[in-house]
Amino acid sequence: MTWLLFIIGAIIAGFIQGLTGFAFALIAMSFWVWGLSPQLAAPLVVFASVWSHLISLSHEQKHPHLHKALYLPYLIAGLLGVPLGIWLLHMVEAETFRILLGAFLVIWSPLMLFNPQIRPLQHAGKTADASIGLIGGILGGLGGFCGSVPSAWLMLKQLPKEQQRYILRHFNFAIQVFTLAAYLLQGSLNQTHLPYIGVLMIAVSIPAIVGARLFHRISEQRFKYIVLGLLFSSGCFLLFKEVIS
User: Which position has the higher pLDDT, 185 or 144?
Assistant: First the structure.
């Protein structure tokens, strides 16, 4: 049963990340938490997220109108935020953090269905974008949810779905590579993970490619509903985890 949950979680998470550019950890952990220890699951989530990014990036269409300037403010500030989040991890109670983040996502996601028009936010500049990237990096260091706040911010700015996915994909990829390197240096990713890694490389690849190709066939509205649904699910998962723990 553990291996079945592991493979099903990997397949679904790979597809969702290929489609949206984020949320591998959210989807995978909702399956893996029932069969794997956190010490085993956390490095696998990061590895699989990086792998699915590489696979989907190599099979997606080129967009010459999208350039690095879109994601660099988020990325640079996010990388600075990761070690800060890791440092804060020893000062902030993990349970309190998960409850606050979960409550925010559960309340915020349904509100976004009403399509609020906040003009100052829609025209916010790179300083505001960098601030959001910093928060995303801190949340990544604290609990691995680096994409939650940036995706919420991009939704508020009402950017086209191509830009949202482009920013989230590159931001999350950079944060996850940074985290994976930290795991390797700390020895948190070791020989115990090798059988799981072999299965992941097979289970994630095709779903990630399918998700990346399907992205270009969905409408702006449907993409918005998918992202909001993932964020709402993320909040519910965080709160539910605290209730049963």
Answer: 185
